Structure prediction request, 455 residues.
Amino acid sequence: MKKTIYLLLFILLNIIFYSANSCACISFENASWIDSLELTRNIFFSILILYVSEFILSKTLSFLNTLNWSNELPEELSKIYDKDKYSKSMDYEKTKYKFSTISSLLWFNVMVLILLFSWFWELYNYLHNFTSNIILITLYFFWIITFFQTIISLPFSYYSTFVIEEKFWFNKMTKKMFFMDSIKSILLTVLIGWWILALITWIYTITWNSFWLYTWWVVTFFSVFMMMFYSSLIVPLFNKQTPLKEWKLRDEIEAFASSVWFTLDNIYVIDWSKRSTKANAYFSWFGPKKRIVLYDTLISDLTNNELVAVLAHEIGHYKRKHTIQMLVFWMIQTWIMLFILWLALRFPEVSKALWAFEGNFAVWLVAFGILYTPISIIFGLLGSILSRKNEYQADEFAWLNYKPEKLKSALIKLSRNNLSNLRPHPAYEFFYYSHPTVLKRIKALDSIKTKKVKS
Ligand SMILES: [Zn+2]
Prediction:
């Protein structure tokens, strides 16, 4: 059954490619509207090739990851998993792998069809019948794309929640909650996205030459605003956050915080258990707003000492200035991206490559989004490397200032309960893991001990 599906998809893909290759060339040659045919055609093929290459790269990495699967419990994991739990974690990995392969193949095919049959341009043209206002057209254009994207992805996320997560005892969501969440996310995307997109398009129409610089200020301001208020504005729409009431735990956390000169304003508990059994904690901070949020699932999984160790790690991120560092990294990345976008906007061929008869902003953005892929992969990689380095530093902070053994046992418990894959393929890990695996983190923690003993 599975093989048949893959085979069918493969055949479909081939048909699309061969027919497209010929139809793309014919249409371009017959089209008198293109000024620089050669460049337009090159950009069109670059877009296709980049899209396909990125897909092949991500599928190859996922496939490499499967090579590390084993039926026996590997010796190095014997302290973390027992036999049953390990085989359950392998089952979980395999199920997720199959699911993501099928869904990404579907998305891939949809996108290739759209690119080849100029549906972006058709959509733009259709909208042009109703209005010629560039801001409205851009808004409608992305609304419709987001609408179809949501329609296609909803069944997948439904399956992932109610079949996969359910099978492994992670899911706690009811169907009603799932649909309410989906509606809320769509409304949020429309409401927030609407303003940002309208603003950016408006800036584009009035400040042609410094478009990228103004846009950079807008998105930077918006991101900083979100960093500060996400926890108090967006999270309450989905979850309830209540101040931590357990006095003993609260005292221990506060005692630790003051021992490292950290003024803590708020400790909240979020009712995550209504959605999932997976556990986590996060720390949001900007300016005077310092807030630590613990998942109620984390509190039920860990002992008080282990919880403080996890918080020590989070405070370590703050003390080592990782939040600011990540923000600066993101700002540089956006700056470069917008600058390149602005350069691309000077070439009408970029939007013409997606069959648009005239340069237009909405189609331009889509074409640019794909052409930008290689740079975004590089930034993604750099981001992962930076983030893994920061994890080691935060662990070290927790080790030096609290009980190292407690951090280790917390990490082990969390990855066991979340059925984490602890032996990813090195290439997969290099590209995608924002956190080092628990084995590596424990090794790093132990090496701090040996360094200490030696000195
Ligand atoms: Zn961390």
Remarks:
- The mean pLDDT is 85.
- The radius of gyration is 25 Å.
- The pocket of zinc ion is lined by residues 313, 317, 391, 394 (CB under 6 Å).
- DSSP finds 17 helices and four strands in the chain.
